[in-house]
Amino acid sequence: MATTSITQASPAPEIPALGIGPRLAYFLMLAGLLPVALTGIGTFALGQAPMTHWILMAHVGASPVFAVGLTLVALTWPSREARYGGFSWFLFWLLLFAGWIVVVSGVLPMTPLLGTDGQHFLYLTHRYAGIAVAILTVLHLLSLRPRR
Amino acid sequence: MSPIRASVSDSFPPSHVRTRSRKNVLRGALPFLLGWLLAAGGEASAADSVGTESRMPYRHVIPLRDHAGDMITPPPAFDEQGKPQEPRGSPYSTAQTCGRCHDYPSISQGWHFNAATTNVPAGRPGEPWILTDPATRTQLPLSYRGWKGTFRPADVGMSDYDFLVQFARHFPGGGVGEPPKDRIATNDVRMRRMQITGALEIDCLICHNKSGHYDHEARFKAVTAENFKWAPTIASELGAYGASRPAKAFADAWRPPRPAPTNLPPIKYERHRFDSGNHVLIDITRKPSPSTCYYCHTSESNLGDSRWHSDGDIHIRAGMSCVDCHRNGIDHQVVRGYEGEINDRPVSQESIALRTRLILRDDPAISEADARKLAESRLNEEVGKVETLSCSGCHYGSADGQFAGRLGAPRPQHVGFPPIHFEKLACTACHSGPIPGDAVEIVHTSLAHKLGLPAPPRGANTAPAIVQPVFLRDVSGKIAPHKMVWPSYWGILTNGVVSPLLPDVVAKAAGDKLPTQAPADVERDPYNTKPLTNDQIRDVLTALAAGRTLGEPVFLASGKLHRLANNELQAEDHAAAEPYAWPLGHDVCPASQSVGGVKGCADCHSLDSPIYFGIVAARGPIGPKDAVSKTHLNMRGDDETVTSTFAFTFKFRPMLKVVTFGCALILLGVLLGRAFVALSGARSGMGRQSK
Fold this sequence. Notes:
- The complex is a heterodimer.
- Chain A is mostly helical.
- In chain A, 70% of the residues lie in helices and 0% in strands.
- Chain A has one domain (20-143).
- Chain B has 26 helices and 22 strands.
- The longest helix of chain B is centred in the last third of the chain and has 38 residues, at 653-690.
């Protein structure tokens, strides 16, 4: 009877489980994203851009929730993201990057840094990065299935 | 003394331009000249198509012509017997004198003259004429253009002639001043006076005089005395009246069907103005100076001796003139300078005819129909450039990005202003008029307050009461500052519609019920500005109701309709009492003094922002407590809850910025950290592979 000797490999680093903190952070990000996307993409899709009145207030009011949620996700998820595979990992970092662009292009127009052309560029950047964030979030949610 | 000989032997144009003129006539202008004469009914001679076509203004040493087209020639100073002769003659005619070279029929279509022409688009609401009568407390906005909220003179029983007597002081002539001959010949007791007073021709020198020797006060006195056809000559200081009796007296004494008197006062010309060839130097400018425009277009809110605080318009300060932007061609369709004006500027038939003539001159092979099509197409293309003369057109360029920076206009940076502001606000919202305060302020204008003419100092209560800046939405839907006047008049309410009564009708019907000013009070309050009391209004309404079977007398003032109910005065809202508003464009201020340039966002986005929460209190001849008072946002129909909530959210704006910037920084750190790790991993991987 042949025996097989198995070489003991060094154990892979353990991926921490997704605890309540990261889950809450992700939920917070989604809670912020939902009204922001509905108001922002909704008015754009309906040809009603730019936003005004209550829509604008809802959009601006929910935006810090999204920004804080995204930041907490950025702080709590990277070590755990590998649980969900390479594609999810890729989407995650793309989401963070697009989210950062959305946040920056949302807040920079409130500062006396850019003129009309720069403001317009930021406005369009915010719009299309925002659409990208919404799509990436949906894809990322779908990719969140732990590897067996 | 012999009168000035009207001579046609001294042919026109002057010899130094004659050769070219003849050529032009021979080349094909003659058929059009004839057609033109027919079209114009022979009222004015058609242009002779002469010109210098140089940027250097032509030195106008020209013959003066009377209304018959005859040259005005002063007799020698002494006759053959050695007796002195006075240089008497008919007044000169601008249509005959200027119209010899400049296309008078085309000019007559200009914005300053064409208000009563029915097929001219009214365009954006503009300043109305305001019929003001302190005794009856009337301030009634009038306009031939049909702007909503104004009355056409005929609708209130005012003839064109009465309009001229009232407003020719600031009306340059033409239009209603030159009615067709058949209108003058009718039995209209007012219009037929023009058989004596003459027509009020366009007085070209009101704008184009460069010498500074144009006497507006003399013109005012002339038109008040109904010396219409004398006015241009008197105001230009070419001569004085040769007799003291005004045309008004002749017209008053005239009893048709007796023939109209012909012994009207002549002009005693200034002999020294005529050269040896009986030509007169008229110092003309193509581009009138701002001072010239200000005679009719002054708008002053620094009342009394506080005027020296005003900086004026930044463009004028920079050395520009009004006509750099408010331009026009020979058709005198002056660019008004608002966005979307192109839609209100159809090319006139006169312009097409003129351009057709030029094309035919340049290309004898082209057919008249083709020339006309080409002319129309070129003119339409040129009209497109009107868009580049609005604020945004000049500073940003037209919609297709063309022609930005005309006259060196800098491209505004608008640092820190999100683009939505430019979709919601007109340029003037931040840059024109006075910086808005908690309440609107009184403004005087030339047309309304006879500025430019000497009078006792006008005060804050001098009628008509016009306020500014009121932030309303303009025709494009953008918020823009406006001037506003609340109509004030006595009228008859029938089936919900109020028909105004003219002041003389009210004065006659009300008799002694109208309060009269004590003589001792006249010096202190020369404009009789004391508000009416409720009792006085009730008494006048009662007097107006006496003997009336149809309609109910009412009084509109300060945004309310006042009527009698069981002999008690009742004030209520009514559409007829709504104010009339028109956008203001000047004075333009620089960014540092603009709204938003002083306190930044808080200039507008705060709970005490004047453009939202400032008070617009109606002004008129009743006590302020009875007047309508609203905020700017109420005036333009904005939602108060939305506006105040939005303003309230700006209290949290600094916190929002801190939180969002903090998040952005942390996110950036995480992203850079990940990038660093990835790069380090890649480097170490490459290192292992190389080993």
